[in-house]
Amino acid sequence: MNAARNDSASILPPGTEDLLRGVCADPFSVLGRHANGRNDIVRAFCPDARAVKLVVLRPRSAPIERAMRRVDDRGLYVGTVPAGASYRLKIGWADGWEETEDSYSFGLLLGELDLHLFTEGRHRDLDRVMGAQVMEIGGVTGVRFALWAPNAFRVSVIGDFNVWDGRRHPMRLRHAAGIWELFIPRIGPGERYKYEILDQDRRLLPPKADPMALATERPPATASIVVDPRPFPWEDEDWMNGRAARQADSAPLSIYEVHAASWRRPAGDPAGIMRWDELERTLIPYVVDMGFSHIELMPIMEHPFGGSWGYQTLGLYAPSARYGTPEQFASFVNACHRAGLGVILDWVPAHFPADTHGLARFDGSCLYEHEDRREGFHPDWHTLIYNFGRHEVRGFLIGSALMWLQRYHVDGLRVDAVASMLYRDYSRAEGEWISNIHGGRENLEAIQFLRDLNMTVAHYCPSAMVIAEESTAWPGVSQPVADGGLGFAYKWNMGWMHDTLQYISRDPVWRRYHHSEIMFGLYYAFSERFILPLSHDEVVHGKGSLISRMPGDEWRRHAGMRAYFAFMWAHPGKKLLFMGGEVAQVHEWHADGEIDWAGLGNPMARGVQALVRDVNRLYRDLPALHREDCLPQGFAWVIGDDDDNSVFAWLRLAHGAAPVLVVCNMTPVPRSDYRIGVPVAGYWREMLNTDAQDYQGSGVGNEGGVHTTFEGAHGYAQSCVLTLPPLGVLYLSPAGGHA
To answer: Could you read off the pLDDT of 19-40 as tens digits, one per residue?
Structure first.
């Protein structure tokens, strides 16, 4: 140092040298205001400044400026102000003067209750407390930064506002919670920032993005961005007030799953990505026209690798900058609601990638993940697994879920890869996993996390849905937590998807020997509240498109596709279809392409699209097809044993509503004079015939309907004699109404 003065001890306290070297764990002990009798000593560390002045504010007089003394060539300045006087710093840089309040003149920022709730994992407003929050403190506008990094030795905020110099803005540690905090005056929305962290061995880590950033740079850039705190002007009050009824298990839930980047590319730009305003103008009207009730977006939380389709998420609190700003995403959701569409987001709490700017060894320790790779590394995806046993990690994840539901009015979250969370030995060989405290394979901490998540959402957002992608026979996934379940609203029926796709892929000649595959799902259809998914996972990685799995020539493939969709929409359970299926896309989905819209030049593809539009309308308009979707009394077998003809039939029922008879002929052979018993005498109108010429079928059918005869069949006193179209499905309903 070059300040050999008699008062150097009072001017330069212990810790000064550490501060100048960038390794000070307590910058407030050196910087800012410090009482010293009638005057307060003010210290400021401004590396590369050419001069620093104190601007002393006086209540009834003009401010006065006092030059601060440079006491170290590395940029430490010292000055005095009258005890208790307000002041600002005026810093001379090479390109001009900057006047600002002193970050180190502000007291403690986060309240004790915030810290306590955070450490217990029970803080439910983390998006408004942690990260970068624009606010006013003592009449000064700026940004409060708060970061959980309990094992760091030093943390600094770096950004454009301090030329990414970690010496300029080291933070204060709130030891009880392991949270670092700092208020930086006179910066605001749009600022780019990261955190510079020294681990406990004082080693400099790669700059870290904010885990709770509300916005980010567009990848491959990785900085976090300060957002505008003004609330979005929502116009969806009617939707939100009626949402509970729209998403109840008695509602017609029909979901269109979308990968936003590859649904449609901007005109003339095959590598471009539509932004939210463009999707608002194009995607929403299309989904409304097709009759779906909800859009489900594959993960739109920020993720560094586009090839992961969003499933390797690092920014659990930030909409991806690929599609626009947070405000534009809110506008998209608002527009969906105004158009009568719900929005579901895929959400990934099961694992996260190991990118160096992200959560991996965040403060030099395994903070978010497990230290032991047998618990903390996912062999399928080469990603890291959250430590669900840590309160702060559970709170971080639940805080993310609540943010999407509350801040963005999202209607539901589809939790990805639940099975991988439930079992400690998931995708692991013997010796590659650690048993739970009872010696079992169940991940008790993850189970408790999922229950906490669902109970919390039910409390704070009671009309929202949380949906499980769960591929095993774990009991009670959609049962209430109070009854021993996991508490999800719905569960994807992966077994139904596997069995029915396997059946429909078989040559019709052999289907008679595999009748159980198409029927098996009906034996357990009411054990959970199910969604029937034909998701993106079924049209990638060499599996081919849906229509490519249909056997036969072009006509038979399209007929089989129509029949399969009609079978699905009449089967108990809510519906989900991945984009492209509705237009009979020939090619397997690729995230770098788009839906084969040009394929609609084929009339048969347009026929499939028209069929999907109509089954959505019927599913919505006929209460028997949806009102008791999740209850056994909503379904009754009529024919389940006609293996030889590959024909089966059932009734969909709802109290007070007309029944719907569903008849499926899964061979290309028309069946004439086929007698089926029905519960109501009279005229049964043909509500749907997948072989209709409107769908490019052969037109075999029943001329709009049939009258019953008094010849009993299948346990009913009357019956219909039907013509069953080839590879066709019929929906019929009595003209007189009730059963």
So the answer is: 999 999 899 999 999 998 899 9
Does a structural domain hold residue 54? yes
Token pair recorded at residue 189: 């929305």
Residue 515: inside a domain, yes or no?
Answer: no
For residue 319, what are the β-bridge partners? 301
Annotated catalytic residue, options 40, 127, 416, 614: 416
Provide, rounded to the nearest whole percent, the portion of the chain with pLDDT above 70: 98
Query: Which domain covers residue 675, as residue numbers?
Result: 631-734
Residue closest to 697 by CA, chosen among 511, 517, 565: 565
Question: Mean pLDDT for the chain?
Answer: 94
Three-class SS string for 614-665?
Answer: HHHHHHHHCHHHCCCCCCHHHEEEEEEEECCCCEEEEEECCCCCCCEEEEEE
The two beta strands, 412-415 and 465-468, are parallel
How many domains, in total, are found in the chain? 3
The average pLDDT across 611-639 equals 96
C-alpha to C-alpha distances, 260 to 18, 115, 347, 726, nearest whole angstrom: 49, 37, 15, 37
Please check the confidence at residue 557 and state whether its pLDDT lies above 90.
yes
416 is catalytic: yes
Tell me whether residue 469 is one of the annotated catalytic residues: yes
In the beta sheet, which residues pair with residue 81?
40
Provide the pLDDT for residue 242: 97
Question: How many CB atoms lie under 10 A from the CB of residue 160?
Answer: 12
Secondary structure (DSSP) of 252-274 = --EEEEE-TTTS-PPTT-TT---
230, two tokens:
């003004």
Q: Which residues of 340-360 are buried (b: 16+ CB within 10 A; e: fewer)?
A: ebbbbbbbbbbbbbbbebbbb
Instruction: Assign residue 676 the CATH number of its domain.
Output: 2.60.40.1180
Can you tell me the distance from the alpha carbon of 477 to that of 524, in angstroms, rounded to the nearest whole number?
A: 14
The span from the CA of 389 to the CA of 367, in Å, is 11
pLDDT, one tens digit per residue, over 691-734 is 999 999 999 999 999 999 999 999 999 999 999 999 999 999 99
Which among 469, 470, 528, 614 is annotated as catalytic? 469
Longest CA–CA separation in the chain, Å: 115
Q: For the packed helices 603-621 and 554-570, what is the interaxial angle rounded to 10 degrees?
A: 10
Give CA–CA dist 124/455, Å, rounded: 12
| Spatial contact of 214 and 191, defined as CB atoms under 8 Å apart | no
Mean pLDDT, range 88-109, rounded to an integer: 95
- Number of neighbouring beta carbons within 10 Å of residue 331: 19
Which CATH number fits the domain that encloses residue 177?
2.60.40.10
694 occurs within a structural domain: yes
